[in-house]
Amino acid sequence: MAVIQRLMVDRFRNLEAVDLMLSPSFNIFSGINGSGKTSLLEAIHVLSVGRSFRTHKVDPLVKHEQKDFLVFADLGEQGRIGLLKSRAGKKELKFDGEQQGNWQSVAAALPLQVLNTESFQLLEGSGKIRRRFLDWAVFHVEHSYLDDWRAYRRGIAHRNSLLKSGGAGLHAQLDAWDVELAGLGQAIHESRTAIIESFGALLQAVVGELLPNRKITLGYKAGWDSEQRFARVLKELRPRDIKYGMTLNGPHRADFTIKVDGVLATESLSRGQLKMLVCALKIAMGRFVERSAADSNRAGRGESKCIYLIDDLASELDRINRAKVVSLLARADAQCLFTAVEGKDLDLDGELTERSRKFHVEHGKIQSYQ
To answer: Which Pfam families does the entry link to (predicted)?
Structure first.
């Protein structure tokens, strides 16, 4: 079970010398805008997956006039993770004292779901965002999936380079690459399809609690006519790929639609309802990974439980809907880190209050209070 027992953050944006003992349940960080609340959640996200949810650049993450930042999390029996990253991008990532070449083991040990203003992009943004959301689940169910996806992306990049360059022997070279890509692409498609089918029922149950009497339909698009094997598509559509200098079909073009009562969610729901649907998607996916990991654990493959990072839940949600989300997360028995301008924006009942820890954030400093 992933629970951050102790969190240390230093020289990350405006945060300095942060050292916190967290509750395994709810943790509420309150303070005015710009105090460092979101930066704390961002630091945890960077530790887990190696990138920010706000920027692709490293430089803005390092505190002014500092050369690097530090983030450390003690997960108890699950291990300890530390990241030291310089403004120039040089990193030192350790998991239980062992140097890590990439984030694969760390991401598996520290699964996160983020709920913030950018989460609306899951409904309104490009297919890349929804693919990433789906692939997060596939990775936590099948850790080997990441290797397949990386190999596929490398193969597509090489194939696209060949398509652009042309030249003698092009078809023979494409034949060789297409054999590998066909197998990888088909495997990725089948893994994603299995997740979508299993996830749909769980999502409907969660939506039933947050948006009662609404029917949710997920429509998966493979990135090609999935009635055909991917190998055949690569071969038959090669002339068009050569014309445009890129691979126009495949798992890298996959997407899925989200309909509510038969209509695209973005066309039928209000802004507040869309936020409730985003909450449902994130919470349901966390539950899905947890249940899948529990099944794997019975087979001796380990355990996983999602941590939720929730930035400004009060924005665009009334008190009744906030209470629904809080209640759902409480019953999930997961660790949650909330931010709010004022602590009273999150109304907790007596039991939750006893299990929660509250922190005040001001000018990059964080203090516990009750």
So the answer is: SMC_N
CA 266, CA 249: separation in Å to the nearest integer?
26
Between CA 308 and CA 171 the distance in angstroms is 48
Lowest mean pLDDT among 125-139, 152-166, 266-280, 348-362: 348-362
369: tokens are 């209070």
Backbone angles phi, psi at 299, to 5 degrees: -95, 10
Q: Is residue 177 part of a domain?
A: yes
Question: What mean pLDDT comes out for the span 25-51?
Answer: 96
Residue 300 lies in a domain: no
- As a whole number of angstroms, the distance between CA 262 and CA 214 comes to 10
pLDDT in tens, 195-222: 999 999 999 999 999 999 999 999 999 9
Torsion of Cα atoms, 215 then 252 then 295 then 258, to 10°: -10
Say if residue 288 is exposed, middle or buried (CB neighbours under 10 Å; 0-12, 13-18, 19+).
buried
Interval 258-272 mean pLDDT: 96
Give residue 361's pLDDT.
Answer: 97
Supply the range of the domain harboring residue 160: 123-287
| Contact (CB, 8 A) for 203 and 281 | yes
- For the chain, the distance separating the N- and C-terminal CA atoms, rounded to the nearest angstrom, is 26
Vertex 288: Cα angle to 149 and 47 (nearest 5):
60
Q: For the chain, how many structural domains are there in total?
A: 2
Asked whether the whole model's pTM tops 0.85, one would answer yes
pLDDT tens track for 55-74: 999 999 999 999 999 999 99
Handedness of CA 204, 207, 209, 215 (dihedral sign): negative
270: Cβ contacts below 8 Å, ≥ 6 apart: none
Closest CA to 46 of 2, 5, 89: 89
Q: Which CATH number belongs to the domain containing residue 67 in this structure? A: 3.40.50.300
Query: Domain for residue 13, yes or no?
Result: yes
